[in-house]
Design brief:
alpha/beta; 18 helices; 2 domains; about 35% helix; two-stranded antiparallel sheet
Length: about 450
């Protein structure tokens, strides 16, 4: 089959009915390639609690959404193609899956030159259950919104990734005297250490992809980025339902809605499933009776969050944002590699708020500004002409430029040779207006309830 014929052929992934037994969920899929060959997959998710005692309609609706979200890990091996739901799909579920594929697979489509992915169809007989959705589009939602402020204390399940943002959320919610539980999908040392410092138990769900997927990838099947936060969000909501939490709080901020590149008429955003578009999409799709889903730090930029994190010194020795801390092989893990976009971004955005020695201590004494190999990477973060924002979870160029401007005034950094490089210093944002915009609370760009908005404003 020629490359042209292959692009015109249609692959397919069928999402079969999820199976659940207590806290064990099995997600079954059947992929069909362009030559009609079938491959079966079973993904297993194990929750830290049982779903036996919850409302069956709410549980089953959430399981269907999880099946659709997790399907993209397998669908990409058969793309371009369509997603089939033989047992039926509601209009709400169909829209959820279509939008998730179109935007959540944007980077995958871009990297693999498969714009056809943007037109992915979700097919299947129309299902029942339209009235069972919560219907909470762009306005704050959740039963406790109707309570007087004094009765608005929440049981909040906070997603923890081992980085600075979730730490800021944990401490802000504890300061506001909410009952806080910590949650992760799988677990690594930085996540466990965060829970230890916070003195809160860590509730861990386990997700295991079918090994058959890795075999297909090794044989050359299309591979790339998927919206994993969408999957983790639904696992968190199911965990909250099982354990009686009324709210699930992620720590995705304003910067995550900012894209990387325009391509085929679409904004490609590595962080789309962390952005406000996905948050709205999921809230609209959640069934009645599901816990409230919200991103606590949505109205804040990464730089404002970094300013607050700088004061949480007890976490400075345990947190990390570097992907290499989460390698599958333990021997390949390191807290900070000091050679990736995420390390560069955290170094840059924390530098204005820490003494030089404090920041270098976090990075095991390594000064990333002094490393010539990192220079172009910093220019990418700063939005230098001709360079793309990295396909990673990093902030907007504007806040990086403000961080640079603050460093020019920082006694411990202002004489650093990096800051006098002509291609760097010209990118600094130094005006009061620039700073005000970056540190401002984004009034209309969040879905927070009044009690949680007050928590976010205190950050």
């Amino acid at each position: 089959m020629t490359a042209t014929e292959q692009r015109q052929a249609i692959g397919e992934l069928a999402c079969l009915a999820p199976r659940v037994d207590g806290g064990r969920i099995e997600l079954d899929y059947v992929g069909t390639d362009t030559q009609g060959r079938e491959t079966r997959f079973t993904e297993v998710v194990e929750l830290p609690g049982s779903l036996d005692g919850v409302d069956a309609a709410t549980r089953d609706a959430l399981l269907r959404l999880l099946s659709l979200a997790a399907s993209l890990s397998y669908f990409k091996a058969f793309a371009p193609g369509r997603i089939v739901v033989p047992d039926g799909v509601t209009d709400v579920e169909r829209r959820f899956a279509v939008e998730l594929a179109r935007h959540g697979l944007g980077e995958f489509a871009y990297v693999n030159d498969l714009p056809e992915v943007f037109a992915t169809e979700v097919v299947g007989p129309s299902g029942d259950g339209e009235a069972a959705t919560s219907g909470a589009p762009a306005s704050p939602g959740g039963p406790s919104d109707l309570l007087p402020a004094a009765q608005c204390s929440r049981r909040v399940l906070v997603a923890v990734g081992g980085g600075k943002d979730s730490i800021v959320s944990i401490e802000a919610l504890l300061a506001a005297e909410h009952e806080v539980g910590l949650f992760s999908v799988n677990s690594y040392r930085p996540i466990e250490a965060t829970a230890e410092v916070a003195e809160r138990p860590l509730l861990t769900a386990r997700r295991r992809l079918d090994p058959e997927l890795f075999r297909l990838n090794a044989e050359g099947a299309p591979n790339g980025h998927v919206p994993v936060t969408a999957v983790n969000s639904l696992v968190a909501v199911l965990t909250a339902l099982a354990l009686g939490y009324d709210t699930v709080a992620f720590s995705n901020e304003a910067s995550s809605s900012y894209g990387n590149v325009e391509w085929h008429g679409q904004t490609i955003n590595h962080q789309w499933s962390k952005g406000i578009g996905f948050e709205r999409l999921l809230r609209e799709a959640l069934p009645a009776g599901a816990p409230t889903y919200v991103s606590l730090l949505r109205p804040l930029t990464e730089l404002r969050i970094a300013r607050r994190f700088a004061s949480h010194t007890s976490y400075h020795g345990v947190f990390t944002s570097c992907n290499r801390a989460f390698k599958l092989q333990e021997s390949e893990r390191t807290s900070w590699c000091a050679d990736c976009p995420k390390c560069r971004f955290v170094f840059l955005c924390l530098a204005p708020f820490l003494e030089r020695e404090e920041l270098l201590a976090i990075f095991s004494g390594r000064d990333m500004f002094a490393d010539p190999a990192q220079h172009e990477g910093f220019l990418e973060l700063l939005g230098a002409d001709g360079l793309l924002k990295p396909f990673e979870c990093v902030g907007e160029p504007d806040e990086c430029r403000v961080a640079l401007g603050l460093l020019l005034e920082h006694e411990g950094w202002r004489d650093h040779p990096f800051l006098s490089a002509p291609d760097v210093v010209g990118l600094a944002a130094t005006s009061a207006a620039d700073r005000e915009a970056v540190f401002a609370f984004r009034e209309h760009e969040h879905l927070l309830t009044p009690d949680l908005e007050a928590v976010a404003r205190a950050v």
